[in-house]
Amino acid sequence: MSLSHVLNKAERCGLLLVMTGLAHAAPPAAAGSLFGISSGSGGPGPSLSVPMQIVILMTLLTLLPAVVMSITPFLRITVVLHFLRQALGTQSTPSNQVLIGMSMFLTILIMNPVASEMYHKGWEPMEKNQLSYQQAFDEGSKPLKIFLTRFAREKDVALFLEVTHSPSPRNPSDLDLKVLIPAYIVSELKAGFQIGAVLFLPFLVIDLLVASVTLSIGMVQLPPVMISAPFKVLLFVLVDGWNLVLGSLMKSFYT
């Protein structure tokens, strides 16, 4: 499957979420005329004007990148890569653009099956007028719920159930997205910081050894960080660090 096809599916799944937000913002009578797709519902009633619909759509499209980055593996991958760069002490190498691009393509690779399932269950039936906006959202969000449930900790889910005063679900599939999404974000932040702390340890040992040696021989003119940086980069290259780190990150989402 080509990358452009994958991106097209991801864009359509994101547009499905945006359209669902518009469907909630407007009454059913107005929803039937949005984007030229009939929802099968009618009847008299007030509707949003076209300029207001455009404003709502542009607002949701502005928030869409932040939403997508928060509910995908992009969150954990960027946190880990940031910690790795700090541990290596290479300042701005790799650059932010490289780290973001790497995280984006790894995220597309991991989320491709989920996005494809959301597209087939939500967007396609809605295009054929087989489902309304709300039904398409409910069906299309099921694969996303399954993915989020796999990585959201029970402790975090319980926290947001308590905060929102929501009843405890009988099974994980009954969890609402308003509870599942923040629980997933907190869980991913915890996982990313744990992996980053583990990555820091070997490089911290090198910093301590170099600092001890330089102080013992009285070499105080040259900062220990400048001396330890080549050793840390050399160690990372010798153990094929990029393969180990990125491979472990990818496997953590498939297990």
Tell me what you see in this structure.
- This protein is 76% helix and 0% strand.
- It has 255 residues and is mostly helical.
- The longest helix has 40 residues, at 177-216.
- It is elongated, with a radius of gyration of 24 Å.
Report the structural category: mainly alpha
User: Using only CA atoms, what is the Rg?
Assistant: 24 Å
| Individual helix count | 10
**Element string (H = helix, E = strand):** HHHHHHHHHH
Number of strands: 0
Query: How much helical structure, as a percent, in the residues?
Result: over 70%
What is the percentage of strand-forming residues? under 5%
Keywords:
about 260 residues, mainly alpha, 10 helices, about 0% strand, elongated
Short note summarizing the structure:
The relative contact order is 0.11.
List the helices and strands and how they pair.
Elements: H1 3-25, H2 28-31, H3 50-70, H4 74-88, H5 96-127, H6 133-151, H7 154-163, H8 177-216, H9 224-238, H10 241-254
Helix pairs in contact: 1-3, 1-5, 1-6, 4-5, 4-8, 5-6, 6-8, 7-8, 8-9
